[in-house]
Amino acid sequence: MTALIVPLLLATVLVILAVAALRMRGSRRPAFLREVTFVLSAYFLYFVIRGVTEARESEAIARALALERLEQRLHLFYEVRLQAAVLDHSWLIELVNAVYIWGHWPVVGAVGLWLYLTRRRAYRRYRNAMLISGAVGIVIFMLFPTAPPRLANPELIDTVVERTDAYRVMQPPQLTNQFAAVPSLHLGWNLLMGIALVREAKRQWMQMFGWLMPPVMFAATIITANHYLLDAVAGAVVVLVALGIVERWGPRSRIRLPARLGGRPVRRAPTKASLGED
């Protein structure tokens, strides 16, 4: 069954992109195809660079244990208790695994496509924030490899690997760095998409999804033992700083468009000053 998921998933993505391209006017299609190519290239480059990073296992585990001790000193070490509370409930484990696997890249991709099609200016903002935070993440992965709790603490188990192999579809083992737990961009990028939905969406259900998605994903990263609590905090900080950089120093439009116009150009009436009148 799992072997069929890959072609079905790729086919679905291609159909969605093809439909989006066909619905565009002829002059907008080349720009859309260029953007798709750019984003997919960045996506694969991120995983290739992260995947070929030298895995320094002993150092990565030592750093994870140090992080665990820090959480204990801060009275934040709840990972073992949280996972133990749900392990006896198979439906909860399946739900948490599904959130962790299918609530990340499919959601990030869907929100990104929606932003591109409906909020082009906002799309560039969040895309650039993802690129900056991804670059920062790669540097940290390379300089400070950190193991996830499932590899550092014997009391925790990897619920994703033990209960399902669907994650191999979304992130092949060949492109996976086991020691890239800090920062947790799994949580950080979901937080970024949540912010985008809360800010940009008009429909209340989309805004509610934007509010709920980050805390639900936060819980999933902890319960599946893929990240410590402080991993997730680090991911959120990196993403929020990246978004702040884009909003502070990124290119700005001379005319701030009302959100209700959906990003369509607005022509202002000429003022007296612009006409040279006294």
Account of the 3D structure:
The protein has helices at residues 2-22, 29-52, 57-73, 79-87, 90-102, 105-118, 120-143, 149-152, 159-163, 167-170, 185-200, 204-223, 229-249, 272-275. The chain is globular, with a radius of gyration of 21 Å. It has 14 helices and no strands. With 278 residues, the chain is an all-alpha fold.
Share in helix: over 70%
Can you summarize the main beta sheet? none
Distance between the termini: 76 Å
Percent strand equals under 5%
The value of Rg in angstroms is: 21 Å
The assigned structural class equals mainly alpha
Oligomer: single chain
The dominant shape is globular
| Number of distinct helices | 14
Uncertain segments: 1-11, 253-266, 271-278
Question: What series of H and E elements makes up the topology?
Answer: HHHHHHHHHHHHHH
Number of strands: 0
**Average pLDDT score:** 79
